[in-house]
UniProtKB/TrEMBL annotation:
This is DNA-binding beta-propeller fold protein YncE. It comes from Neobacillus niacini. The lineage of its organism: Bacteria, Bacillati, Bacillota, Bacilli, Bacillales. GO terms for molecular function: DNA binding; zinc ion binding. Its main location: membrane. Residues 479-649 form the Yip1 domain.
Length: 673
């Protein structure tokens, strides 16, 4: 019996161990990443809460946090009016600035161990040595280049290898303030750009110089935080803007990242790990991780809902990452610091990125394969795998991976190699076949002249062309050379009917679907998502029907001679270039690379312009307008289409509200009965 009890106890312990492990590794938030199509999808947890750092009364209102290369953590605490220094285990090593600091809001430690503290209240940056002795202070520059009215309210600070200071000052719209070691003003660095809106462009066009001088001059937003990597590159975040919210600045102060790297405009802090990966913290407690090229890797964290769970924050203010890859996030309202640790999944991603960044694509492949085993939709992993296969000259596999990643440029390079190999193998055979076909063509033409061997099929074809419906459909080709005469015959001689026009509308829709879904990957739209036939029907036929209806009504008012039937038939025949050439161009798009994209783009533009010209002629000839009357008719038609869309939308909204009102009344009556 005792032996049986021991067995049960052991089994119970074995069962409990993995459960405890899972509970420890669980996170109170979901982690998201970019999928192959550029949308956010949920993925495996990248960072899990490890615990609190310096819990208790040691920290009151943490404003900023910094980790040096020796493993020490520095916390600027405005509540205790000092900088707290602790080791990675949470043991306090020193308290810096007691009696000196008033409201420390930023902290940075240089390679020599000197501690720089931005004090918002005293409007200075203080410099302490590693044991807390005050070595110097940096007040407002007295240089005339700085400007007497320029604000100097230090919030954050950073120091480069040369000892130059980069000060984030509240309201400094000129950019980051750059000071030398002795406090001399060196200039402004990394100034943000003024956002240009459609409204400002219109105002600029319509106002005089005098009016412009009286208008409020829009200034660029001031940067809010700063970080430096081991190469000395400077990173900044700016709150309340839509472009360049994250900047990676070179020596000249130019941004090296995509200006639209992120949709978030509430970033509070930024930090960079030893591999150049960028971590940002926003006001809602979300942490966004990017690689050194600006590709989004993970989104995790969130706002505390009152449950006080680790990994959720009420007023996040600072973020840093130590040499071991642990994240430290300060929460000012809760007076605590949370430590997050990377999971094995994130570790595989980071190892793959580190090799990928160095151009070691083949060596990184094993890590990306592990990532894809866990999440097959991880977009960056497919791009990396594509480069790996490309490096190994396995271009077919590279094409597949680039297509998964929707990487047009990589796909184009791999496709060029595949096409080149195909041409080397089959081009001579293709040329021989073409030459043979040309010889056969001229031989048949010669025999036809001598013995009339094609008279029978020629007579059959001429007989078929005389059939009314086929002749009406073939009448489409007359619009290429003689559009004016063709519309005359269409209107006066009835060379086309509603039936033939309807068939052409159906052909138009079929060709539209073929062009949309069979265009070469390089030139196709990659955000198709779910394909709905009703949606595609609406995209094609709603604008056409709207144009026909509105143009008929406008032309009736403005003495147009065209009947509804004439406009209905004339509109589809105006699209003759699209109907004839879109399929060949679609086929062509499947054999072109990105470097040859001008051929496809130019061809498409020619088709659209050609159709618009014929459509213009159609309106002019059908309604018997002059040139100026035709132009006016087109503008009024377009305006009428917009008005009709608005009317339909308003009617729909009103009907929906009436339906909800009637439904709620009926529901109330049923409940009372």
């Amino acid at each position: 019996m005792q032996h049986f009890v021991r067995v049960i106890v052991c089994l119970g312990l074995l069962i409990m161990l993995p459960l405890q492990s899972i509970a420890f590794a669980s996170a109170p938030y979901k982690t998201e990443t970019l999928s192959s199509d550029g949308g956010l999808i949920e993925t495996q947890t990248a960072f899990t809460p490890l615990g609190e750092f310096l819990s208790g009364e040691e920290v009151v209102n943490p404003e900023d946090i910094f980790s040096d290369t020796n493993g020490f953590i520095y916390i600027a605490d405005s509540g205790t009016k000092k900088v707290i220094v602790a080791d990675e285990n949470g043991n306090i090593q020193a308290r810096i600035g007691e009696g000196v600091l008033e409201k420390p809001t930023g902290v940075f430690v240089d390679d020599n161990g000197d501690i720089f503290v931005a004090d918002y209240a005293k409007e200075k940056v203080f410099r302490f040595n590693s044991i807390g002795e005050l070595k110097g202070e940096f007040g407002k520059p007295d240089s005339p280049l700085f400007g007497k009215r320029s604000p100097y309210k230090p919030q954050k600070v950073g120091v480069d290898r040369r000892g130059n200071l980069y000060v984030i000052s509240e309201g400094s719209t000129n950019g980051i303030i750059q000071l030398s070691q002795d406090g001399s003003f060196l200039g402004y660095y990394g100034v943000n750009n003024t956002e240009i809106s459609f409204k400002s462009v219109i105002q600029n066009l319509l106002t005089t110089e005098t009016q412009k001088s009286k208008m409020f001059m829009k200034t660029p937003p001031a940067p809010d935080n700063i970080a430096l990597d081991k190469q000395g590159l400077i990173y900044s975040v700016t709150e309340g803007t839509e472009n360049e919210v994250i900047k990676k600045l070179n020596v000249a102060g130019k941004n090296m990242l995509d200006p639209f790297i992120s949709w978030d405009s509430t970033y509070q802090d930024i930090t960079v790990d030893k591999d150049g990966n960028i971590f940002t913290l926003n006001s809602t407690g979300e942490i966004h991780e990017f690689d050194s090229f600006g590709n989004l890797l993970f989104v995790f964290g969130g706002t505390d809902d009152g449950s006080n769970r680790l990994g959720l924050f009420k007023q996040p203010t600072g973020i840093t990452i130590d040499q071991n890859g642990k994240l430290y996030i300060t929460d000012k309202e809760r007076g605590m610091i949370t430590v997050l640790e990377a999971t094995a999944f994130a570790g595989q991603v980071h190892k793959g990125i580190a090799l990928f960044k160095e151009g070691l694509y083949v060596e990184s492949q094993q890590y990306w394969e592990s990532v894809l085993e866990l999440n097959s939709s991880f977009g960056l992993a497919h791009t990396a795998m594509g480069k790996s296969y490309y490096k190994q000259q396995n271009y077919e596999k590279a094409l597949e991976e680039y297509k998964f990643a929707e990487d047009v440029y990589g796909y184009s390079d791999a496709f060029w190699e595949v096409r080149q190999a195909w041409m080397q193998e089959y081009l001579s055979s293709v040329l021989l076949i073409l030459i043979g076909l040309i010889v056969i063509y001229y031989f048949i033409e010669y025999l036809d002249k001598k013995r009339k061997i094609l008279d029978v099929p020629r007579n059959k074809w001429n007989e078929w062309k005389t059939k009314k419906l086929l002749s009406e459909l073939l009448f489409l080709f007359k619009f290429f050379k003689h559009p004016i005469d063709s519309f005359y015959y269409l209107k006066r001689k009835q060379y086309a009917t509603v039936l033939s026009a309807t068939i052409l509308y159906i052909i138009l829709f079929i060709e539209y679907l073929i062009a949309k879904f069979q265009t070469g990957f390089i030139f196709s739209y990659h955000g198709l998502g779910e394909k709905s036939l009703l949606v595609e029907i609406g995209i094609v036929f709603v604008p056409l029907l709207l144009f026909i209806l509105v143009n008929y009504m406008v032309s009736t008012i403005n003495d147009g001679e065209g009947r509804f039937k004439d406009i209905y038939i004339g509109t589809i025949y105006s699209l003759a270039p699209y109907l004839v050439f879109i399929i060949p161009i679609t086929i062509l798009s499947n054999v072109l690379t990105y470097n040859e994209s001008f051929i496809y783009i130019f061809s498409i533009r020619i088709i659209y312009v050609w159709c618009l010209i014929i459509l213009f002629i159609m309106i002019q000839e059908i309604h018997n307008y002059t040139f100026s009357e035709t132009v006016r008719n087109i503008f009024v038609t377009l305006f009428g289409m917009v008005i009709m869309i608005l009317v339909v939308f308003i009617v729909f909204v009103l009907f929906d509200q009436v339906y909800d009102f009637v439904y709620s009344i009926m529901k109330e009556v049923m409940m009372r009965v």
